Amino acid sequence: MSRKLVIDPVTRIEGHGKVTLTLDDNNKVTDARLHVVEFRGFEKFVQGHPYWEAPVLLQRICGICFVSHHLCGAKALDDMIGVGLGSGVKLLPTPEKVRRLGHYAQQLQSHVTAYFYLVVPEMLFGMDAPPEQRNVLGLVEANPALIKRVVALRKWGQELIKTVLGKRMHGINSVPGGVSKNISLAERERFLNGEEGLLSIDEVIEYAQDGLKLFYDFHEKHREEVDNFAVVPALDMCLVDDAGNVDYYHGKLRIVDENKNIVRELDYHDYLDHFSEATEEWSYMKFPFLKDLGREKGSVRVGPLARLNVTQCYLTPLAQEALERFKAYTNGKSNNMVLHTNWARAIEIIHCAELIKQLLNDPDLQQDQLLLTPADNAWTGEGVGAVEAPRGTLLHHYRADRAGNITFANLIVATTHNNQVLNRTVRAVAEKYVGGNVEITEGMMNAIEVGIRAYDPCLSCATHALGQMPLVVSLYDKAGSLIHERSR
Amino acid sequence: MSDSVNKKEFSHALKKTPMDPEVQAKRDEKIKVAMIALCGCWGCTLSLLDMDEALLELLDSVTILRSSLTDIKRIPQRCAIGFVEGGVANEENIETLKHFRENCDILISVGACAVWGGIPAMRNEIELTECFREAYIDSPTAVPGAIPTIPYHEDVPKLTTKVYPCHEVVKMDYFIPGCPPDGAAILKVLDDLIHGRVFELPTSINRYD
Ligand code: SF4
User: Fold this and answer.
1) Is the per-residue pLDDT at B133 higher than 80?
2) Which residues contact A481 (CB under 8 A, 6 or more apart)?
3) Average pLDDT over residues B168-177
4) Strands A287-290 and B88-90: what pairing?
5) Is B159–A468 a contact, with Cβ atoms under 8 angstroms apart?
6) For the segment B37-86, what is each residue's pLDDT rounded down to a tens digit?
């Protein structure tokens, strides 16, 4: 008789997922899947709304990378009103830099949350530690000094987001053609120099480096396990500038293979010419792939590991130093070791902190030319935006009618790009840690979750698509209590 | 969640490494709080972390059982206070919420989605079949020539026809509005409740956006 093992829900990730494993009589893994079990339906229900609502509504897809959704939407709207990169127009320096500042702040905050709150517990306690211990509560008990620093670091990122966007979460600053507010000198000083209860930028950079050191120490002690945990080869994709360096806010999409040969380079406005998305019955999350290569060969990986594999270099010193060590580890070839994604994430925290420091010192942030006004008849009615969200390339595409009402929206989020590699990872880890064992423990199953957490998947983001047949019909009585539920 | 086809073995029910009894005993003395996320964006859950340093202080007297930040996948014992993010959008949400109600003394809707359905409830205006067509048949990235596939599987929950606020499914005791509420609002409520004060949200920290 076959066995079916279930992880429900996958925890310490954003959103709702479930893993199922099927084992045959010899305890061999015959099936291993990550199911995304939730969905919402933004693409459909945003239709009919005024175009300018899109970045405000659609950031509600995700409570951890909302700035990415907000900016991606804003970039699409720049195009739509005729002052965007799609029409060959570049924003004024101040709005672009203000947007970048908010984006880097979020990249930092999101990575800090994912790395320290969700991933570090395993590094300190081990994969088969008690589930009650391997989480933030365990960190508080075991290392109060560390958790204080983590809280301060996350707070700093959130406060900077609040300064740029008006709220810690789901704020507003970007508008079609620019931003609605710049950064005052007083605000700048607050983040550069810190204040009571708020770190200075130099402390942020120092704490970020400590985060990377945490990985180095862990790696030193468990090299074998970290390197061989799961190795999943894939094409890597991210946005790069003209020099081939990663740019979190803008660029062309570059895809490289295992030898870092460029296999594709495209203007993200043309994404429909390159990507298709497959659907499986067992998950609400689709599987994007490069059309001409097919799903098996043409699925790409995005996110920190992919970005470090693609980028030539960083233009900030501490991150560049860390990147060189990272690249040397695989002799310049692409790094496919799943747990090294956490290494890459720790490096990106430093990179973002350094980028923020550069930007905070830029006097353009205080200029007051914030908006480009479109010329008459510039309206194009269509726009595509792309950014490097914390988890990888994010894409928003909208169309609107002449009255300004949205008629079409399509989104491809980072975690969806990673769907195929995520499932390959689940399978690889299941075969290695679970398969062949007669007695299966909770710790072995957690290894699978560790593999998933490395991607820091945001299943909230990935389930924006609405569309499915199975329905449950609910009947309520007058008082509002559920009296009958029927599936069809 | 029907277990009819294959007997499922849940990971959290498998043999696991036990907690250090001393550490566990300390936690057992504390007030037990839990949080579930239903159909939301995870933002309200993260607003909990927005309490910043105050969260660490709180953890002297409070411990967290089930939540998506811990690895505790079912409530293991009775909880004093349960927070809910998100509305009810599928059959699993209904089960999870009911189980939560049965095991928590006080249940609180946190954020617009839990309070009234929030942004996901915008789908209530649309026929589900239309949405289905949009996502899987008319999608601009649909695989050319492929037979459209619609997720339908024993391992993915069925959707409810509408997105419901939590209080239409079970009794909720308190509501914290906001999308999301600020960390300060959640902190005030939690602090008041664990000290036996009445629930009160002054306008200075309450928000609706
Ligand atoms: S209320 Fe807002 S922040 Fe909270 S889960 Fe819903 S969309 Fe996210």
Assistant:
1) no
2) none
3) 97
4) unpaired
5) yes
6) 999 999 999 999 999 999 999 999 999 999 888 888 888 889 999 999 99
Sign of CA dihedral B171, B177, B178, B184: negative
Secondary structure element (H or E) that encloses residue A304, with its range:
helix A304-310
* CA–CA dist A417, A436 (Å, integer): 31
Residue found by looking up tokens 């498998």 in the block: B14
A482–B143: do the CB atoms touch at under 8 Å?
no
Region B13-34 average pLDDT: 94
Q: Is the CB of B87 under 6 A from ligand 1?
A: no
- For residues A135 and B43, give the distance between their C-alpha atoms in angstroms, rounded to a whole number: 19
Cβ pair B143, A292 in contact under 8 A = no
The pLDDT assigned to A91 comes to 92
Nearest to B86 by CA among B48, B113, B123, B115: B113
Task: Tell me which residues of chain A, numbers 200 to 259, contact chain B at a CB-CB cutoff of 8 Å.
Answer: none
Report the separation in Å between the CA atom of A462 and the middle of ligand 1, taken as the mean of its atom positions: 16
pLDDT tens-digit series, residues A422-478: 999 999 999 999 999 989 999 999 999 999 999 998 887 766 543 333 334 343 444
A483: enclosing H helix or E strand: strand A482-487
How confident is the prediction for chain B on average, in pLDDT?
Answer: 90
Half-sphere exposure of A143 (CA within 13 A, CB side): 18
**HEC per residue, chain B:** CCCCCCCEEEHHHCECCCCCHHHHHHHHCCEEEEEEECECCCHHHHHHHCCCHHHHHHCCCEEECCCCCCCCCCCCCCEEEEEEECEEEEHHHHHHHHHHHHHEEEEEEECHHHHHCCHHHHHHHCCHHHHHHHHHHCCCCECCCCCCCCCCCCCCCCEEEEEECHHHCCCCCEEECCCCCCHHHHHHHHHHHHCCCCCCCCCCCCCCC
Q: Which residues of chain A have pLDDT under 50?
A: 465-480, 482-488
Residue A283 contacts B where some CB pair is shorter than 8 Å: yes
Q: How far is Cα A342 from Cα A326, in angstroms, rounded to an integer?
A: 12
In B28-87, the residues whose Cβ lies within 8 Å of chain A are 37, 39-47, 49-50, 52-53, 55-56, 59, 63-64, 68-73
Q: Which residues of A are less than 8 Å from B44 in CB distance?
A: 63
What is the distance in A from the centroid of ligand 1 to the CA of B180?
5
CA distance B183 to B55: 9
Cβ pair A278:B136 closer than 8 A: no
Partner B contacted by A63 (CB < 8 A): yes
A54 contacts A409 by C-beta, under 8 angstroms: yes
| Rounded distance between C-alpha atoms, residue A341 and residue A337, angstroms | 7
Kindly tell me the sign of the dihedral angle through the C-alpha atoms of A291, A296, A298, A303: positive
pLDDT at A476: 42
| pLDDT of amino acid B5 | 46
User: A60–B69: do the CB atoms touch at under 8 Å?
Assistant: no
Q: Which helix (H) or strand (E) holds A139?
A: helix A136-142
- Rounded to a whole number of angstroms, the distance from the CA of A171 to the nearest CA of chain B is 9
The distance of A243 to chain B (nearest Cα, Å) reads 30
* Token output for A421: 């590699």
Residue A31: which H helix or E strand, with range?
strand A29-36
User: In degrees, to the nearest 5, what angle opens at C-alpha A56 toward C-alphas A50 and A62?
Assistant: 135
What is the pLDDT, as a whole number, of residue B6?
Answer: 57
